[in-house]
Amino acid sequence: MFTSKPKIRTRTVAVTVKKPTSGSTSATNPSSNSIRKPGAIPTPQNRYNLTPSNKVRTPATQPREPARQSLSVSNTNQRKRKVTPSTPQWASSSDESSDDEDAGSRKRQKTSSSIEPMIHNRCLEPDLQRRIRIEEPDARRQDNGSATSATGEKRRTSMDGKLVHGLQMSRGEWAKDFKPAFPGAGENLQVKLQYPSNSRPERFETVIPYDNSNFNPLDDIYFCMEEMVQHYLPSDLSASLSSEIDGPVRLLKRAVAKNSPQDFEAALNDFNALIGKKLEDKTITKVLDAIHAIPLSLTKRILAQVYQRTVSPYAHLLRKVKGKETTYGELLPAFAHTIFQQTSLNSKSVFVDLGSGVGNVVLQSALQTGADSWGIEIMDNPAKYAIRQASELRARSKLWNISLGPITLQHGDFLDSAEVDDALRRADVVLCNNKVFPQKMNVALLDKFLDLKKGAKIVSLASFVGGGARQGVRNEHSVASLFKEERFDSGTYSVSWTGESVEYFITTKVI
Fold first, then answer.
1. According to the annotation, is 247 in a ligand binding site?
2. Comparing 221 with 18, which gets the higher pLDDT?
3. Are 406 and 366 in contact (CB under 8 A)?
4. Has 467 been labeled as part of a binding site?
5. Is 166 a known ligand-binding residue?
6. What domains does the chain contain, in order, with CATH numbers?
7. Is 351 annotated as contributing to ligand binding?
8. Is 343 helix (H, G, I), strand (E, B) or coil?
9. Tens digits of residue pLDDT in 450-493
């Protein structure tokens, strides 16, 4: 006789599995030998640990998607970062916007350090024909950023340079946006920062913005000092001044933390005296004369200063568009740097930007490469601010003791400009952000490009010869034999309108 097997009761229990965060140290990262306390802020992976972000970083709730592989950028930064202050955070503009808009709607561009980590502190190939330092008198270029024709006649290249001091950014209508950096000290302390040139110092007011997206005078001082320490002084002196214990930037920040305006002013005066001494004994002159390429981090810092003072306070006027054909976007400085490198742009080159917006890439070309740089923009507001940026760059580059290439900015239609047509015939590199151009316009542009010299390169965000633009040109069957086109991926955070990688094309005139 067999007895029945007793039944076993079972119960299903749901166990919640906590997904690891991107910053956690767990079994998924066996190489980690440290344990991070919950809520701890990670140490910034930057050579300037003295300049952390103002915002508290929180761990991501989901693991990030891996960044796309870039064909043109060897190192792609996969960490989310702020948009550079030298470019609008929107990708549009309108002539219908009015300067009479509500002043309360004005929000200035978020400012952050333009410094790159040392491993990313890139430079273009050395240009041995270019002298970085401003040399007086300069017979070939009558002033910084203005061109001289073959007959000796000075070509008109917009207004002369006029410097906007940091002090002006926190005064007048903007004063209400700031609070004292040293509470209870009475009137706000005014200070001066000496740049690595014989120009007069720039004036600042020691105030802090209520809104972190606003211009921050103290940050501007810190970032500029860091660039001077790294790129204008010998390496041994630079190393000692970068100290996190008693370096000049650390002393300034300590003075703010202690609410001591006297210590702040004393530390800044000591730094100014040091720069003055190194100018007098020709140390800075020797360092500048030994280099033939401007570091990208220094380029970004200068462009950021220019944009903050001329465009950012009025950037709300660039937001609206009338239609797709008036939409624009800007290439960020690191992307422009890559393009300059790929096209071998240098001080003997001619660069033309068709649809140059507020002039960012034109100014970067003149600053970073010394090329004869042209831009033309049809919309009123961007063209107006491009002229203002050029004026500020001319003045500010003198502070930094950097010689600019000639700059020519025009307000008009690039399909109907005799001067631009002449520049195109001499151009070595042509930039055209034609992503949203109608086919008819791309056809007209390709027709102009048939007159480019052999070897000239066209950089575009939409194909000119691989798509419909080639149809309707003088002889559509000959276009493919005249141009050679290559496709690339920009890498993430390369343009103002998206953080995703975008495709772009470099087309070379081969015949």
1. no
2. 221
3. yes
4. no
5. no
6. 165-290 (no CATH), 313-509 (3.40.50.150)
7. yes
8. helix
9. 999 999 999 999 998 875 455 444 555 567 689 999 999 999 99
